[in-house]
Amino acid sequence: MSDHYVKVKVQLEQMKSLGEDAEKEHVDAEEQVPVSSLRASVSPDPSSITIASRDASNTSITCKQRGKSRSKLGKDDNSSSGKHISDLSSHGSVVSAHVGKNLNRPGHDSTLHIKGTGEILQSKSETNGNYATIHPSKNIQEARHEDGFKLARKRRPVTVDTAKAKTSLEALKLSIKQLKWKEFPLGRRAACDIYWHGVSFHDNENIVSGQVNKFPGMIEMLRKINMSRAVRTMQELFPEEYDFYPRSWILPEEYQQFSTQIRMVKENDATVNPTFIVKPDGGSQGDGIYLIRDPSDLKLMAGSQAKQAVVQEYIHKPLLIDKLKFDIRLYVLVKSMEPLEIYIAKEGLTRFCTEPYQEPSQKNLSHVFMHLTNYSLNVHSGNFVHSDSHSTGSKRTLSSVLYRLAAKGVDIKKVWSDIIALVIKTVIAVVPELKVYYQADIPPGKPGPTCFQILGFDILMMKNLKPVLLEVNSNPSMRIEHEQEVAPGVFEYVPSPVDKEVKVGVIRDTLRLMDPGHKKPSIQSSQPRAEHGEEIRMEAETQERSPDEGALPSLCLKQVYPKYTKQFSHLRLVERIAALFIRFLGVKGNMRLGPTAFRTFIRTCKLSNSNFTMASVDILYIDITRRWSGATPDSREAGMGLQAFVEAFFYLAGRRFKSLALREQVTSLLALCEAQLDSPTAVEDRRSVSCSRALPRGNRAQTLGPSNPQLNSPAPLRRAASQDYRLHQRLKPRTLRANVEN
Ligand code: ADP
User: Fold this and answer.
1) pLDDT at 713 over 80
2) In 10 A of CB 460, how many CB atoms?
3) Class of residue 7 by CB neighbours under 10 A (exposed 0-12, middle 13-18, buried 19+)
4) β-strands 490-495, 63-65: how paired?
5) Which ligand 1 atom is at minimum distance from the Cα of 224?
6) I want to staple 297 with a disulfide (CB 3.0 to 4.6 A). Which of 198, 292, 383, 404 is the partner?
7) CB burial of residue 336 (10 Å; 0-12, 13-18, 19+)
8) Which of 62-76, 94-108, 266-280, 515-529 has the lowest average pLDDT?
């Protein structure tokens, strides 16, 4: 099957290459097909050199009534610690942009090193999180193809399918126009180089090549509950490094822990009266958010009505400007997952509240314009200030705010370096599960696109200048218009200069980084690395431009990873656990480990012995899997997901290396498992994994109890399960470690 896929992919690549090398003379209009057309079909590319994009600067104005004005499409959000990275020569330039220097001016001397991308048809294992093994002959083919491609690049612009771009369309059109690339607003019969999706990886199906601006699973991973779980796992391993995320509880499952802990805090010190913010799991734009001061104020509903939400410690001393609370929207490009490449936009947005801030009290808890910085809420306040200036009004550039802080004597280099650390650590927390999604959607050997994604980080500055992560948006709004009330209750979309400056830069430079014809400098050799724990000084980098980038401004995206690999690579422990998990998944398309595959993992890594028998292994599997399936009721399939596997792994590590602290326990067990998997006998064992299928997707009816025919030892399991399960059934995920004993 995989050979077949590889052959098909190579054929497609060759045909595409041939088609592109031939001079194209057909008109564009004939190429623009309804989006439903099969994207995998290949025909010679008849594109001409003319640019199809229309001038988006004449933004059309839409009149809307209040209340109907917000699009909910696809959660488009429309809206530390750590070592100090002295990295700020480039950010200093952002600040100076507001004292007369234009950040985007060509020839700006403190610029980023452009890291080119893998060529369009390069193996995904090199570029982006796919794990296909590359056959040597394929490398040669690719090298030939790259040469051919570079020649072709001189003659034709990069093609971008914008049919699914949704609200990012205007900014995308402007970016494509600036790059002199070619837009296909209705899609295209032949493959495009880049597909721009407004919502998710799956906006277009059947893409077999090129690059898509979304990763599979990103929406799911960044939902509030999943995100909290992923960060919490990291907090268990690295508590000091992950103290930038407020303490959170997942509702309804952790209601008891939440109320008990708060009651104890209050009993210990009667003067303490903390505030909490409750956020519905699937919410965005501040929808459904409220503040509480006591667990009894939670609006919980019973049974299946129970609302999934995160309740979080409320940061009650935020940094204020003009007496107003504000938050930072930072754009982050995950350019590739394998190897991990992260870029941060040097310019971002700040969104201001519209009512002067006061610390939370029973009286002001419901004042959303005081406590919530969401643009989509505050735009409806009478105090909202639309401004053409980047440094005033209710939405400003990040650089203008940093400039103001610098003028007050704030060490903004330290602030910026803390923000970079927060971003890298957060991405490291979510990558393990993203890799599971990735291999399920684009299994090794299956033709598919490579992925990249722009994320929107929402960051709050505390009064003591420590950045706090609020959330990460998988679909940050890329609108360059904003709503304005032109008559009472009548809203129009009008161009927003601040949004345009920031967002067009981010999209255009993302495209430049993803340019399939761009020379790819060696990450390993070209970039100096700092040792772990060492302070990093960021040298001024020289901008690398491809000849046809001409007068484009220097990149507004700055590489932070692998730039700072050495400082952060020690945090990538869960990714190694995920690699084990993926290895034992066994069947393409699966995201969950079946009981037999779990046993195979234990056996291959030699983790069972007379004190920890295979019957105990089965109990462990059942116990953890049952509790996690209760904790994630909307999961698509039965079996053990990554988070449950991580819990099992922590438990196994604890048993094996009792005297060590958790992080050392996990590191030691990983080393042990990896050594076992490298040993020759493990190869034989692993073969059996392909037979030990995990439960297929959608097969939720299948139970994991003794009647499950996939369990090899039903009798001892039944016995043990009936005794041991009762002991553990009330325990919640993550509380098992010390409790399962044999
Ligand atoms: P949404 O996705 O609905 O926008 P957020 O998590 O971004 O949800 O929260 C909405 C707003 O609430 C934020 O922009 C911020 O102003 C405020 N907020 C969120 N979490 C906290 C917190 N822990 N402490 C203080 N303010 C918060």
Assistant:
1) no
2) 18
3) exposed
4) antiparallel
5) 6
6) 292
7) buried
8) 94-108
The CA 281 to ligand 1 mean position distance, Å, reads: 12
Q: What's the CA-to-centroid distance between 286 and ligand 1, angstroms?
A: 7
Q: What is the pLDDT of residues 594-648, one digit of tens each?
A: 999 999 999 999 999 999 999 999 999 999 999 898 776 555 678 999 999 999 9
Residue 673 clears pLDDT 70, i.e. is over it: yes
- Distances in Å between the alpha carbon of 589 and those of 125, 445, 636, 715? 17, 12, 12, 31
How far apart are the CA of 225 and the centre of ligand 1, in A?
14
* Orientation angle between helical segments 224-237 and 573-585, nearest 10 degrees: 120
Ligand 1 — pocket residues by CB below 6 A? 246, 277, 279, 283-287, 289, 312, 314-315, 327, 372-374, 458, 460, 470-471
Burial string for 512-537 (b: 16+ CB within 10 Å, else e) reads: bbbbbbbeeeebeeebebbeeeeebe
pTM of this structure: 0.76
Question: Average pLDDT of 146-166?
Answer: 74
Q: Collapse the DSSP code of 183 into the 3-class scheme (helix H, G, I; strand E, B; otherwise coil) and give the result.
A: strand
DSSP string, 417-469: HHHHHHHHHHHHHHHHHHHHHHHHHS-TTS---EE-EEEEEEEEEBTTS-EEE
Mean pLDDT of 548-560: 86
C-alpha to C-alpha distances, 87 to 131, 347, 403, 514, 648, nearest whole angstrom:
33, 15, 17, 24, 39
Cα–Cα distance list, 566 to 151, 332, 335, 589 (Å): 37, 20, 19, 33
Q: Which atom of ligand 1 is nearest to the CA of 79?
A: 4
If one residue of 225, 277, 367, 461 were mutated to test the ligand 1 pocket, choosing by the most ligand atoms within 8 A of its CB, it would be 277
353 CA distance to ligand 1 middle (Å) = 12
Residue 280 phi, psi (nearest 5)? -60, 145
- 712: which 2 tokens? 């090899």
* Pairwise CA distance, residues 435 & 425, whole Å: 16
How far, in Å, from the CA of 603 to the mean position of ligand 1?
45
Contacts of 582 (CB under 8 A, 6+ apart): 131, 435, 436, 439
